[in-house]
Design a protein that fits this description.
Helices cover 82% and strands 0% of the residues of chain A. Chain A is an all-alpha fold and 221 residues long. In chain A, α1 packs across α8, α1 crosses α9 and α2 runs antiparallel to α7. Chain B is mainly α and 227 residues long. In chain B, 82% of the residues lie in helices and 0% in strands. The chains are: A mainly alpha (221), B mainly alpha (227).
């Protein structure tokens, strides 16, 4: 059978099966994003702290997670943690793994955003009697968001694309279902191309959005 | 957690040589796909700034698709799809290694094309005009005037890309290339020591990528003071 005959016969079946993988893909991506947003802020605040005891572990964390592949981190969490008595489910391992990995990258976005706000803002807030945490919460971060939004959007795209590796620890997302379909029907070309097209339908509009946010930010400054 | 040092003391003389042997494959993939990516990147960047609209549009498509697809998906498409689309051709030369290098190279080409374009566009228009008014052809002014200066600008982002590429080679295990992750999986599951083995692998990757990232940072500092 040629490519198009296969597509005509099984195309709809491929499409609906692949589509049923998207909830898992989006769960992993959004779970990891929330994890990374929270944990990344902690790392960023530790990194800009004046206290070495906070700064050094954060820097070590950052260097380690940016210096090793996400796949290895996932394997350590999914296959390694049971050695220490914690057996995560594939979904949990994927969210923790990509989240911890993402926290390292996102903390640098936070840091650049915080550092883009003039020092005088922090000094003014402190001289008004705010605590450093309050000043961060009410003065610095709200202003930094505008600078951080475009790179955060770009990072979300990266995160979404990274979820395509979590089938290797057994999460039933788009790529996992694609592979299952290939074993089932012994045809690969239409399935992988369709999966690819689905990713593009999400990532390209997101990239456009990131570019637009960036232009708006530049116009605003 | 306490027994890890003991596990390493007992097994490292077996594990490390084997993993280092596999890491040669990782470096080989990284090296070749870097070259493919740079070649693709330059070609696509030149097409991207071309005056011909068709060429420009094709370049934009290449960049959007190459950057929009997850690397795993690119690897799967490059490795599995062409032999099935054109079954009549001779595919014996097309190994998992070739697929890995091509796949990573195409993804890298899309990333580097944008890096190179911003490098070319960062230069003042006057440079090109001056070169043209001296009687250089557009190709000559590109080779002798624009590209040498753009190289300095793009060096740090290209370095960062190389670091990312080194880590991304780990994905080649998913199409069955015998690189370090593949070796690690077989050791980890035959010896029932996944934690110890995968942490060791993380250490090996770190040992390869960290010097590279220190180098890029030093380069960034030097180039920013030079300006």
């Amino acid at each position: 059978m040629t490519f198009f005959q296969i597509l005509e016969k099984n195309g709809w079946y491929f499409f609906t099966t692949l589509l049923s993988g998207w909830p898992a893909t989006l769960t992993v991506a959004s779970g990891a994003l929330v994890f990374a947003l929270i944990f990344g802020l902690v790392i960023a605040l530790m990194r800009i702290s004046t206290w070495r005891l906070l700064r050094w572990p954060a820097t070590a964390y950052l260097e380690f997670f940016r210096g090793t592949p996400a796949l290895v981190q996932l394997f350590v969490i999914y296959f390694g943690f049971p050695d220490w008595g914690f057996q995560p489910s594939p979904l949990q391992a994927a969210i923790i793994g990509l989240g911890m990995n993402g926290a390292a990258y996102i903390s640098e976005i936070y840091r650049a955003g915080i550092e883009s706000i003039h020092r005088g803002q922090m000094e003014a807030a402190l001289s008004l009697g705010m605590t450093p945490i309050k000043a961060m919460q009410h003065i610095i971060l709200p202003q930094a968001i505008r600078t951080m939004l475009p790179p955060m959007t770009n990072f979300s795209i990266v995160l979404l694309k990274d979820t395509a590796i979590v089938f290797s620890i057994g999460v039933l997302e788009v790529m996992a279902l694609a592979r299952q379909l290939v074993t089932e029907t012994l045809t690969s070309a239409p399935i992988y191309l369709m999966a690819g097209a689905m990713y593009l339908c999400v990532t390209i509009p997101m990239a456009r959005l990131a570019a637009r946010l960036e232009r708006q930010r530049q116009a605003w400054q | 957690m306490l027994e890890l040092p003991q596990i390493y003391a007992e097994n490292i003389h077996r594990w490390l040589p084997e993993l280092l042997y596999y890491s040669l494959m990782t470096l080989k993939i990284g090296f070749f796909s870097f070259i493919v990516a740079v070649v693709f990147g330059i070609l696509v960047a030149l097409c991207r700034v071309s005056k011909n609209r068709l060429v420009r549009t094709l370049a934009i498509w290449f960049i959007e698709i190459g950057r929009g697809l997850p690397i795993v998906v690119i690897l799967y498409i490059i490795y599995f799809v062409p032999p099935q689309l054109f079954p009549g051709l001779n595919w014996t030369w097309f190994s998992d290694f070739t697929g890995a290098v091509l796949g990573l190279g195409i993804h890298g080409g899309a990333i580097l094309a944008e890096v190179f374009r911003s490098g070319i566009e960062a230069l003042h228009k006057g440079q090109r005009e001056a070169a043209m008014s001296l009687g250089m052809t557009p190709a000559k002014s590109m080779v002798y005037i624009i590209l040498p200066q753009a190289t300095r600008i793009v060096l740090p982002p290209v370095g960062n890309y190389a670091i990312g590429l080194l880590k991304d080679t780990s994905l080649c295990t998913l199409i069955g290339v015998n690189e370090i992750m593949n070796g690690a999986k077989s050791i980890a599951f035959s010896d029932y020591q996944p934690m110890a083995v995968f942490i060791l692998v993380a250490g090996i990757y770190f040992a390869m990528s960290y010097p590279l990232s220190l180098l890029v940072r030093a380069l960034e500092r030097r180039l920013s003071t030079a300006q």
